[in-house]
Specification:
NUDIX_hydrolase_CS (chains A, B), DNA hydrolase (chains A, B), two-stranded antiparallel sheet, Nucleoside Triphosphate Pyrophosphohydrolase, alpha+beta, Arc Repressor Mutant, subunit A, DNA-binding, 252 residues, hydrolase (chains A, B), homodimer, WH-like_DNA-bd_sf (chains A, B), 2 domains, 7-stranded mixed beta sheet
DNA sequence: AGTGCTTATCGTCAGGCAGACGACTATGAT
DNA sequence: ATCATAGTCGTCTGCCTGACGATAAGCACT
């Protein structure tokens, strides 16, 4: 059949971001409050339209920078540049997911170290880091006792998918270091795993495992006592991206 | 800012399919010959526009049925219904990936047992199963000595991503059974792993591993000699989807 | 200075699993 | 009958993990 521009329906394409970080021993996601209908006043994932001349990854990186100020870590870049990890997550295109029109959203997953307070267009009250447990619980009450409204659109599903991706990916990759500052201790890395998985890990076995995996951690020579207790060695992320054998998430 | 329908550029949204199967000990993908420009006469992945009222998964299932006659396996369905496995792979949206217009393609991955010859609109010469090695080699020569033109658009990248997804996913899931008929032997399943990974596996250790993993295989009671040699027990895929501990892909 | 608390780090031991590989079994082909 | 082919069961060894004891080195008290 010949090419016919009227043969396909027009879509709007957006990128939505699941930006995760670890704060106060809890896995948190960036949420923004919607200023207009639909879902006005509800919390949602940050995102926006893909521009006419933009690649999907570029659009996601632009949105990430606008919301958090983070540069995206170029996946091809070999060295640690302290940018956030950014990868495509999945695409959501239910015809009814946006009541206004047909929107296909390409969700991306970003992992970032603990950041200062977020800013969404300079208005702090419209953006916050919220524990993912709180964002995902349906019809419950938050820690402040206020009722929790579910996220706008299908963003609860997107967030759940992003969290699951992060939980599984730190098993077999060095991605957990994306939650840490440039230099970090073994204990800090362990607390990342504990927060993301929601479990307690044995400090001794964890130490043996991560220091024994070639290319995972590179000692910087320095030490720190910022966690209290005995001074701990500082490490930087090594070049390895795949962990073989993987970290094992405890059963049940 | 208020809602402005003119604030976003229109996109065309397509689904492209990476349909994999194992034929004659080789991992093969379904390719169709393009009948019109651009890339007229070149091989490409099957795919098409998403319709106005269709979900992405529905569109992918429809395209799969049109090209192969296969029903998609509902991911929520508990029992084996002999449908093909279908899952979303990734989304490709480079502004220049289609010279005609701005197209975002949501690629899907389908895994199917060995099928009779494909049919694309009834014309067999326009669709074929080709070994993925052949489709992915650049500027070489196929097994018949003819020069191999690379796949149309960015389909080589999409195919490579799909193959990599399949290779890694059969490690930690029971997905390799999707390449097998309803009833199959341990040796047939092993040949699937060998074809997808391109390695030789020890039959004895493989047998111990798959029969020892709870929920992976369910014996049907029957036996077959269709592979020659001693009769082999027939199995059906068990309910387990995640293998823990995983199958290990041999190093190097 | 000493005591106690905290975190980091090293070591030991037993159990489980994977790779290497020997041995035996049950068919069809010659 | 003999051979070739594939399937199935065992054994052994080394590695990794989970459980957990023991020691080290800071800080905050008194």
């Amino acid at each position: 059949m010949p090419y016919d521009p009227s043969a396909f329906p027009p879509f709007a394409v957006t990128v939505d971001l699941v930006v995760l970080t670890v704060r106060r021993h809890a896995l948190c996601a960036l949420a923004v409050r919607r200023g207009e209908p639909p879902f006005q006043g509800r919390w949602a994932l940050p995102g926006g339209f893909v521009r006419a001349d933009e690649d999907l990854a570029q659009a996601a990186a632009r949105e990430l920078a606008e919301e958090t100020g983070l540069r995206a870590h170029d996946p091809a870049a070999p060295a640690q540049d302290n940018g956030a990890h950014l990868e495509q997550l999945a695409t959501y295109g239910d015809p009814k997911r946006d009541p206004r029109m047909r929107v296909v959203s390409v969700a991306h997953l970003a992992l970032a170290p603990d950041l200062p307070a977020p800013r969404a267009g300079g208005d702090a009250s419209n953006a916050r880091w919220a524990p993912v447990d709180e964002l995902l619980q349906q019809g419950g009450y938050g820690r402040d006792g206020e009722p929790v409204a579910p996220l706008a659109f299908d963003h609860a599903q997107i967030l759940a998918d992003g969290v699951e991706r992060a939980r599984s990916k730190i098993e077999y990759s060095s991605l957990a270091t994306a939650f840490c500052p440039t230099e970090f201790t073994v204990g800090e890395l362990r607390r990342v795993y504990e927060a993301v998985w929601g479990v307690a890990l044995d400090p001794r076995n964890f130490h043996r495992k991560v220091t024994g995996t070639p290319g995972f951690l590179v000692p910087t020579g320095g030490t720190t006592t910022r966690q209290g207790g005995r001074p701990a060695q500082l490490f930087r992320a090594g070049g390895a991206t795949l962990l073989n054998p993987p970290m094992l998430r405890p059963e049940v």
